[in-house]
Every structure is written in C-alpha cells, then in structure tokens.
Amino acid sequence: MKIVLASSEAIPFAKTGGLADVASALSKALAEVGHEISLFLPYYPQSTARRGINSDDFETCPEKVIISVGSKDVEACLLKAKFPNSNVSVYLVDQPRYFDRPELYHEGGCDYQDNCERFIFFSRSVLEFIDKLNLKPDVIHSNDWQTGLIPALLNIEYQDRSDFEKTASVYTIHNMAFQGQYWHWDMLLTGIDWKYFNRHQMEFFGQLNLLKTGIVFSDMITTVSPTYANEIRTERFGYGLHGVLDSHADRLVGILNGVDPSEWNPEIDPNIEANYSAKTVEQGKPRCKAALQARLELPQRSDVPLLGTISRMTDQKGFSLILDAAENLLTTDVQMIFLGTGDPLHEVAFTDLAKRFPDKVATYIGFDEALAHQIEAGLDIFLMPSQFEPCGLNQMYSLIYGTVPLVHEVGGLADSVIDASGENIENGTANGFSFWHFDATVLYRQMRRAVEMYSDKQTWNQLIQTGMTKDWSWNQSAQNYLSVYQRACSIRAHKTESVSSSP
C-alpha cells in the first residue's frame, strides 16, 4: 500500500510526548513489511537543532505551494529526510513564521495564540504536497487535533481530484484531553463552507473543534489501546465527545502501541551500564542498578527495592498520589528516583523530598534521554499511577527492561500490565501490579505489596521473565493498522461507488 502519515511531531526531529514515538515507529514498522510510507510533519528549526540535527541533514525539495489561510496566502516549502536504516520518506513542511519557535505548541505555560492557524496551514500543506509529489496514497493517516482538518478537506475539497479519488482517511486519537478547540470565527481560516459548522460535524458548544472534525470525517478512527477505545465512549473519559464517538463506534478500533526495538532494547542499548537479555538479566540488571544509584548519589545497595518514575509531573500522571504514598513508604527501607518536569508545585515538592531523604530519594528536574534509559534499566519497580492513560509507553519499556510496573488499571496500562494476583502468578500471566481505585492509600498499599514481593526472588524473577519474553514491538500493532487501512479503503470505495451511481 501507499500510505501517508501526518503528525505534528516525530522523533528524532521533534517530540513532546508519545505521539512522536508512535509516528516514527509505526512508519518504520510499515516500511519494513514492504509498504511505501511517507511521513509529513512541520519543520521546527529550533527543535531539530536542540536534538543535534542541522540543515545539512535535509534535502531541499523544489516543490513549493501557496496555502490560503483565511485572507492570507502563505508559501510552504518542503524539506526531505530519511530515518536511519529505513525506507520511510520524511517530508518536513517549512514555514518559519509558523514553526521557527522555541517550542512546538506553547511557551511559558501559554499556548501560541495562532495554533489553530498554524495547523490549518500544515494540514492544507500536506494535501497540496501529496498532490505536487504525485504520491497518490491509498490511505492518509492523520493524528490528533493538529491534523484533524485533513479528513474534512479530503472529503469536502479533494475527493474530486484524480490523485485523491481512491484515498481513504484514518484518524488516530492519542489523547482525548487535547481537542484543538477554537472560537467560531477561526472557521474562516479553514476555508471550508460555513454549512459544515454544525453540531454534527465541526462545531462543539459554539466553538470549532478540530478533534471532532477528524472523528466525524474520517473513514476509520483508531485510538491507542483497546481499553481506551471503550473508555472514551463514556462521560468520564470522553471529554464531552463520548456521544460523538458512540455514534461512530462501528468505525472505532483500539490498537495498543508498540515499542521501537532499535530505541528501547536492553540487549543493545548504548546508554546503560551493562547490556542484558531475559537470559542474562540477573547478571546485567544489578550492574545497571548500581550505576544508576552512583550517578544520582544514592547508596549503592543491591538489596534495597528501588522504585521510581519518568514522567510529566502532573496530577494526571498521579504525582499527588505518589507524593502522599512516598511519604509513608519512605519510613521503610526503600529508595526512590524521579525524573521529569511539569507542575511547579510538584517540582518543588519532589525536590524537597530528595532533600529530606538524601539517602533514599533522588529527584532530577528536567529531561535527559540517556538517564531515562538508565532509570528503566536500573529500577526494580516503575510507578505509573496515571489518572488516565490512553496507551502509555513507559510501562512497556519497563517490562522490556525487566523492571516491574505498578499501574492504575486504565487505558493501555490495563491492556499491558497483568496484576500479580495469586491466580495470575500461578498461571504465568502476571507481569506487574495494578489497582483500580484512584487513591493515595490504595497506591501505598500496592507499593508495600510490591516491595514485599520483591524479597521473594523466585516470584519476582517470574514477573520479570513474563514481561521480558513477550513481544512488545510494533510487529503486531502494524498488522492491526494494516487491517484498519484495508477497512478504510473498502469504506472509501463504497462511498465512491454510491456517489458515482447516484442520479
């Protein structure tokens, strides 16, 4: 198949969250099994420079297009790159006025005021460059609100062009909390007829909603885990769009994300003290634990349970719960490590925790990619008590690295972590710890339970082996996406036939 993916970020070029990992890993996995993949994203010069990528790494394409955004005509240029060891063609839409900024979406806690305009421009640019490059895709796969306009444009404006008449649209929701809602006058920027600004299509409580737009106009909708696909059809997780999703449930599929083994693999990871596999984890992991303790100036003790997390420090990620539970757990013989940035109150609280327990707690405010890998390899228990989690990747990284995850039983966490109940241990499916009631006391009890089981080396090693020996790569996920693409093409073909046969 010829497949175009459109995303607002992708590693190694730009990243704020899991979307970047998914866009890159899925593209590479599809290309590896023989499909023709083109990935489009904006060119953020400041982001790519920070990530060690400069202009010499890109090829300047001769193609240019003029994009109408409301009353403005703005030129879009195109750069081309490739992933190392991959046939994926990466196209970066270049327009400094929109994308040459310190951050991707916001600065100083405030969104860029022209975000709607920026990503309307990007969405239109993707379609125009697909046409210019004569790609003729079978499927355009858009992701999150930033590209939610693409399925609408494909249906309303581009379906009659010869290059797009057979092109199906697939739309993936990575997080319902971010919907791209803007005041109604921004509808003018889309260039789409006002008749589509109605409660069934692009309007949401008087505002333009780009996530809803993508949902309504796409041929197939996916989200990033089977459990999350069910959750977002409920009031609790749907953020007001549960009714819309329920009405389109026949086109909604949940596919658990995979892990890119070229990025996350303890057997070849250059960032960690010792490489190891499921067969050698008992030799390699203690060395990684000791090196991590040394780097973060904790006593190098192999016997003490080492818990921690890598995350945005927000209430959504469960940091209020972790703080309360940690206060109690630190009265026992444990160590804890925290890496991340986020809510200033949490940053201060966890920094203070490390000051009060210098032999037990290390807190690193910021982000360090190498340290993140070292934490995954060095921890015994990974804490991920998210209030909601569409998919999550760190719990899968942890399983791959022989670190036992402790999670709140929601979204992709519920789909990947099997609780260490007596029955699950006996039948060999247990790989971690999970709880349902989102409460600090419940989390504390689960942490105590995990710490106590840590002393039972036979059972603990069984949990590690169960996690490490499962295939967490994109192989199965990519096949599931291909099935969705085929369904989308069938739906598109049926629509085309219906239109052509109508009087």
UniProtKB/TrEMBL annotation:
The keyword Nucleotide-binding does not apply. Pathway: Glycan biosynthesis; glycogen biosynthesis. Pfam families: Glyco_transf_5, Glycos_transf_1. Keywords: Glycogen biosynthesis, Glycosyltransferase, Transferase. GO terms for biological process: glycogen biosynthetic process. ADP-alpha-D-glucose binds at residue 15. It is an enzyme of class 2 (transferase). It catalyses: [(1->4)-alpha-D-glucosyl](n) + ADP-alpha-D-glucose = [(1->4)-alpha-D-glucosyl](n+1) + ADP + H(+). One of its GO terms (molecular function) is alpha-1,4-glucan glucosyltransferase (UDP-glucose donor) activity. Gene3D superfamilies: Glycogen Phosphorylase B (3.40.50.2000). The keyword Transferase applies. Residues 300-450 form the Glycosyl transferase family domain. It comes from the Bacteria. Its EC number is 2.4.1.21. Residues 2-246 form the Starch synthase catalytic domain. Belongs to the glycosyltransferase 1 family. Bacterial/plant glycogen synthase subfamily. PANTHER family: ALPHA AMYLASE DOMAIN-CONTAINING PROTEIN (PTHR45825:SF11), GRANULE-BOUND STARCH SYNTHASE 1, CHLOROPLASTIC/AMYLOPLASTIC (PTHR45825). This is Glycogen synthase. It comes from Gimesia aquarii. The lineage of its organism: Bacteria, Pseudomonadati, Planctomycetota, Planctomycetia, Planctomycetales.
